[in-house]
Structure to design on (210 residues):
């Protein structure tokens, strides 16, 4: 009888100790499977993480352009007697002409280093982000990308470089006319929405600075 009573008391005491440990030592055990709201701290750390993406080089436009330069002057009396091989023939003028074909690409995107604390608003799992507007990030035209299509007369290296720069500018203008910046804005918004969603945000608003 005493053994049975002692065993019962021992089981009750052991059960009490187990319950006590469950509630004091590991109080979260009852809530381990309970869903919890996502809480994301609005600190400069978030901005730092976004800035570490540096530049979203989102859109690349490749192609070729033609740039030229001409110099025209009146022929001297002596030059008028000499056959003109410059392409002006029997005209009373002479000159020189240079035509260069340039091949390369223009890269446009968003520079995330321009983000600041006013660009981000965070509340719980919601975030509103204003990106800097897209801009031309780089124009790549290697020396091998230039070809002299036509050349008459003598041209200095400085003059040739000036024509190559004209080709570079024409490449940028053509990319802008094709809407490279608006395409880069849309692409950047999509990439950033996916990035923020991967961080745990669920209510996301991303726009570009007008």
């Amino acid at each position: 009888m005493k053994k049975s009573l002692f065993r019962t008391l021992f089981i009750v005491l052991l059960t009490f100790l187990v319950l006590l440990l469950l509630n004091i030592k590991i109080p979260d055990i009852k809530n381990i499977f309970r869903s919890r709201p996502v809480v994301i701290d609005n600190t400069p750390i978030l901005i730092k993480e976004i800035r570490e993406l540096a530049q979203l080089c989102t859109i690349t436009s490749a192609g070729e352009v033609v740039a030229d330069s001409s110099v025209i002057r009146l022929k001297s009396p002596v030059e008028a007697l000499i056959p003109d091989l410059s392409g002006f023939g029997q005209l009373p003028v002479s000159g020189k002409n240079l035509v260069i074909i340039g091949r390369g690409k223009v890269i446009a995107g968003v520079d995330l280093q321009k983000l600041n604390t006013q660009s981000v608003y965070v509340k719980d799992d919601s975030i509103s982000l204003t990106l800097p507007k897209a801009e031309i990030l780089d124009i790549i035209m290697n020396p091998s990308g230039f070809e002299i299509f036509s050349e008459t007369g003598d041209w200095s290296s400085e003059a040739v470089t000036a024509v190559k720069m004209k080709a570079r500018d024409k490449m940028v203008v053509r990319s802008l006319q094709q809407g490279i910046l608006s395409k880069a804005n849309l692409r950047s918004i999509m990439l950033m929405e996916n990035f923020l969603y991967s961080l745990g945000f669920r209510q996301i608003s991303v726009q570009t600075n007008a």
Summary: The chain has two domains: 1-36, 38-69+101-208. Helices lie at 2-24, 44-51, 77-81, 157-177, 180-198. The chain is about 35% helix and 30% strand. Residues 2-24 form the longest helix (23 residues).
